[in-house]
Structure formats: structure tokens, C-alpha cells
Design goal:
By secondary structure, this protein is an alpha+beta fold. The protein has one domain: Rieske Iron-sulfur Protein. Helices cover 15% and strands 30% of the residues. It has one helix at residues 3-23, and strands at residues 40-44, 59-62, 65-69, 75-79, 90-92, 97-99, 106-107, 113-115, 124-130, 133-137. The longest helix has 21 residues, at 3-23. The termini are far apart. The structure holds FE2/S2 (inorganic) cluster (FES). FE2/S2 (inorganic) cluster binds next to loops. FE2/S2 (inorganic) cluster binds at residues 82, 84-85, 87, 100, 102-103, 105, 117-118.
Length: 138
């Protein structure tokens, strides 16, 4: 076996070993597709990051969700993305609805479309306040 032939055979052997090691899982283990995680998190309303929630009509974005202070004790939470083409929606307190600045779709306080071009409603999440903590969950 000359040097060139040795290098080729050694490379092939290393490749087979690497594949065998990577392709064999311990008994009983399977590769699962990543499941979509459920939304469930809590924010501290005293955190300066959420200062806009101190006033009624204020809103913030956290974990791809828009959180709105609707009243003294009422908070709303929806996905922050417009269902038309994923613009980031805003809460318009004076008009009491959500609006997308991209093509101006509008959504009511339940997330239903009140002005197209969006067709589908926003996904709404539940909120639960406990003192200065606000939980957002499905
Ligand atoms: S992306 Fe929101 S209306 Fe088009």
C-alpha cells in the first residue's frame, strides 16, 4: 500500500466511524420534532421595562406579545404580529383598538378584524394579575 492509498483508506475508515457514532442513538431514544411551546410567563409591573403599563391605555411588547393596560385592573394580551403579513400591531387607546401600521388592518379588543386586509383574528392570551405580578398564559 503506497502513501496515497493509505491516506484514502484511512479517511474512509474515519468517515464510517464518525457516521456510525452520530447515527446510532441509545436504545429507547428518539429524535422528536421540536414542539411549539405554550405561552406562560409572568412580568413584574414594577420593572421599569414595563413602565408604560402604569397608565391605562399603555402597552408594551414582551416575548412577541403585546400587553395592554385596559383599565385599573384589566390587562389584555395578544400576539404582536398582524395576521395579514406580520406587521407589529399597536394599541390605539383613543380609538380603543389595535392597528397595524403596515397596511392598516384594525382589530377589536377581542382580536377580531374590524378593517381588512387582514382576515384572521389575533391570537388572544389570558392575563392574571397578582399584586405587582402579571401572568400571561394560554
Ligand atoms: S401586515 Fe398588517 S395589515 Fe398588512
Amino acid at each position: 500500500m503506497d502513501r496515497k492509498e493509505f491516506i484514502i483508506k484511512a479517511g474512509m475508515f474515519a468517515g464510517v466511524c464518525a457516521c456510525a457514532g452520530a447515527c446510532v442513538l441509545p436504545k429507547g431514544e428518539q429524535i422528536e420534532p421540536k414542539k411549539e411551546e405554550k405561552i406562560d410567563f409572568t412580568i413584574d409591573l414594577t420593572n421599569s421595562k414595563f413602565a408604560d403599563l402604569q397608565k391605562i391605555g399603555g402597552f408594551v411588547y414582551e416575548k412577541l406579545i403585546i400587553i395592554v393596560r385596559k383599565g385599573d385592573t384589566e390587562f389584555l394580551a395578544f400576539t404582536q404580529y398582524c395576521t395579514h403579513a406580520s406587521g407589529v400591531i399597536k394599541f390605539i387607546a383613543q380609538k380603543n383598538h389595535f392597528e397595524c401600521p403596515v397596511h392598516y388592518s384594525q382589530f377589536d379588543l377581542e382580536g377580531k378584524v374590524i378593517q381588512s386586509p387582514a382576515i384572521n383574528p389575533l391570537k388572544k392570551y389570558k392575563t392574571e394579575r397578582n399584586g405587582n405580578l402579571l401572568r400571561i398564559f394560554e
